[in-house]
């Protein structure tokens, strides 16, 4: 391949539709060699206030969610700057995008435009090189490809289920599985068991936005109790091979150190919230908690990590929004011990990879994550493998926009070998704390 063959020859953007039936941006990038790379922007609803902005048209049509302006930005503003740039040089591509929009939240171009372009270029570069996307990602990141531990939702909640319960994601992980495939098989059994428990109580009411069972519970803890029963019904001992993982998404119901649990009609102070989660950790085989406190509650995140950071994984999502500067601050503050990596939170592949590398260097856990609004795009499966992330979070174990990502990991696994599967080690690791002490970051 001549080097110029991987140069970008053209970009095309169009409106397509996501898993909620909302419009979103798809971009196709063509290289001089005639290869095409395609990607679609995902969309979150429980969004951090400091994440890249999705540019929407506003007005009455489509609830204001139109992407006409975002599509035009790709065609008129971004495309002219990228024609002739080598697609394999992801940093040059992303720098050119960033040069067009220095606003903190990519408000001019829209994070939905920039992420679709950046991912499409990544996919086009792999095609031009004639290698699978995960391999190109490994070359970009310098990591050894590995199959991440899946983190899979059983009950949806929060903003993904009409706020039927306050906590957003009730998930499981199977760190005791011997392969990615076995982790999915055990998850499938637990998912099915949870569905039949709901059915027995006459509470089976369909699925939430990410495919987890719709939560018909009278209090948040009932979801945890039911999840424990489902794990047992599936023939597993909670805390043994299977552990529970929560995304509290506390910014959705808390701010300024106060947390309003609407389902239970009570408001908790910061300390009470920490005590409640601490009791759940003791009682329910919980190994990982995401956003236990709100994005504005640094004091709470620090206190929580101080107390529980050696027992459980504490993930910053809305708290960090895949932003390297916020991550560095959190490392100094010891405010969490793992980071969720969502490319559309920051807007480009290079910025997301930079954040992941900083986390890895500091010994923090790394979880590549989808959004609640997703599509058939499977770029994140390739990124999770090629970036050597320890975990992958894609939502539940139903609905094809979710299953497409799990299934893609299985296909990749056949190429790189099941022995690359990341077992439960990262969850038990306290390397992050030691690295901070030794000044490795
Ligand atoms: C999250 C994500 C995915 P959303 O909070 O982690 O579950 O939700 O995409 O709506 O921000
Ligand atoms: Mg989250």
Q: What can you tell me about this protein's structure?
A:
The chain has 441 residues and is an alpha/beta fold. 40% of the residues lie in helices and 17% in strands. The strands form 3 sheets. It has an 8-stranded mixed β-barrel, surrounded by 6 helices. A hairpin with a 2-residue loop joins strand 7 and strand 8 (258-261). Helix 4 (133-141) packs across helix 12. Bound molecules: 2-phosphoglyceric acid and magnesium ion. Residues 44-47, 168-169, 210, 247, 249, 317, 369, 371-372 line the site of 2-phosphoglyceric acid.
**Count of DSSP strands:** 14
Broad structural category? alpha/beta
Bound molecules: 2-phosphoglyceric acid, magnesium ion
- Poorly predicted residue ranges: 426-441
Largest sheet, described in full?
8 strands, mixed, barrel
Please describe the structure with a list of short key phrases separated by commas or semicolons:
single chain; 441 residues; alpha/beta; eight-stranded mixed beta barrel; 15 helices; 14 strands; binds 2-phosphoglyceric acid; binds magnesium ion
What is this entry, summarized?
With 441 residues, the chain is of the alpha/beta class.
Outline the secondary-structure elements.
Layout: E1 8-17, E2 23-31, E3 36-40, H1 68-82, H2 90-100, H3 111-129, H4 133-141, E4 149-156, E5 169-173, H5 180-200, H6 220-233, E6 243-247, E7 254-255, E8 258-261, E9 266-269, H7 270-283, E10 286-290, H8 298-308, E11 313-316, H9 324-333, E12 338-341, H10 343-346, H11 349-361, E13 365-369, H12 379-386, E14 391-396, H13 400-416, H14 425-428, H15 431-437
Parallel strand pairs: 4-14, 6-10, 10-11, 11-12, 12-13, 13-14
Antiparallel strand pairs: 1-2, 2-3, 4-5, 5-6, 7-8, 8-9
The site of magnesium ion (MG) has 5 residues, from loops.
